[in-house]
Amino acid sequence: TPRRPIHLLLRVHFAQMPPTVHIYESELLRMAAHMAAFPRRETGGELFGLATHSGASVVYRVTGPAKRARHLSTSFFQDEAFIRSASEVAWAHGLQHLGSWHSHHHIGLAEPSGGDEHTARAALKETGWPRFLMIIGNFPDAGEDHVTLGFTQFDAASGVGSGAAVRTLDGQGPFRHLKFEDERQPGRVPAWVLPREPRELASPWHKQPHMVRRIVSEAHALFGLARAGIEAAIFLDGDEFAVRATASNTRSSDARCAELRFGAGFPDVPPEVVNPRVLHLPTWSVDRTLANVVEELLTQPVCAPRAENRFEPAEPAALLSAGWKRRPAQTATPSPTRLSA
Asked: How far apart are CA 181 and CA 191, in angstroms?
């Protein structure tokens, strides 16, 4: 069976080097599969593994919810007896309890809530652990085919949670075979599992290799819209880039088209919409795919006049080249509209 692609999206800003989490691909997919079983309610589980000399967490085994866990639309309550018994089984194999994970499904909260932060600090105080790892899962689109996972590590000394950098380890974790009594079995594995890592907001996206890799992936997805009769591509201009798309099966004067422009702050800064001139704007989030937004904009029937072009076409291979030179600013373009964050 071909291995499912896993992309790293860097999301949380930081003032110093972030903590690091190493996690096996099998465990990422396991969390996503459990989320798919509860698409409109929260679910979760426990994280077992070890810590390195530098304090980095290595997640070897992720559990799902216990059969007696409670799943509500805005809350998840793991069975306490399951936590105790699973911890004993893991410790018998030399694994420590590192923390927990749970989903925020479609509620739009990508970080730990205030209640989650309270839970993490209470756990640190009760257990005496030096750190507590928490993973939050989301469905960034309307469906359940895309899953994003955000990693936060809470420090006992400061009580502060910091976004953690993620290193994905290939293949199946060595302790995936461990059996935990009363653990619920997961559902199907969604098509995309996207761990989010910390990102320095002051650095333009094209100077961050991980963000360039994301744009390459987005460009391939946009080209793939041709199967639906949509011609779409990315165009570059210094720190900025544009996404343009037209419905190629429409030849009339009211042809459907879309144009988005992003600056150096991508993806945290919402794009500007040049085409079409719309009454309803799609909501932007850092986890939305460009192809998804383009398809939503193409439901609008009217294109604004074509703005003067100052962008250069970019094939995915060109995006990987070592930087591109900033071009001088050109004449003003029609007043764009900013998507709401």
From this structure: 28
Q: Say if residues 246 and 334 touch (Cβ distance below 8 Å).
A: no
Closest to 259 (Cα-Cα) out of 226, 290, 285, 289: 290
Sheet holding 312-314, edge to edge: 312-314, 230-237, 240-247, 257-262, 272-275, 337-338
The CA distances from residue 49 to 53, 97, 100, 168, 338, in Å, are 14, 7, 11, 14, 44
What is the amino acid identity at position 141?
D
Per-residue tokens: 9: 């999206």
The phi, psi pair for 205, rounded to 5°, reads -55, -35
Counting as low any pLDDT under 70, the low residues of the chain are: 1-17, 190-204, 206, 248-255, 275-282, 286, 300-341
Phi-psi region of 159 (alpha: psi -120 to 50; beta: other; left: phi over 0): left
pLDDT on residue 79: 96
Question: What is the distance between the alpha carbons of residues 153 and 23, in angstroms, rounded to a whole number?
Answer: 14
Q: What is the pLDDT of residues 23-49, one digit of tens each?
A: 998 999 899 999 989 999 999 999 999
- List, in sequence order, every residue forming a beta bridge with 246; answer none if it has no partner: 231, 257
> If we measure between CA atoms, which residue out of 145, 122, 115, 149 comes closest to residue 45?
149
Strands 146-155 and 131-138, sheet pairing: antiparallel
Q: Please say whether the beta carbons of 176 and 61 come within 8 A.
A: yes
Q: What is the DSSP letter of 107?
A: S
- 3 state DSSP class of 318: helix
H or E element, residue 122: helix 114-127
Q: Report yes or no: 219 and 316 within 8 Å, Cβ to Cβ.
A: yes
- Give the phi and the psi of residue 69 in degrees, each rounded to 5: -70, 155
Cα atoms in the Cβ-side hemisphere of radius 13 Å centred on 132? 27
CA pair distance 64, 45, nearest whole angstrom: 4
CA dist 49 and 99 (Å) reads 10
Distances (CA, A) of 187 to 64, 144, 190, 204, 321: 11, 12, 9, 38, 40
User: In DSSP terms, which residues pair with 148 in a beta bridge?
Assistant: 138, 194
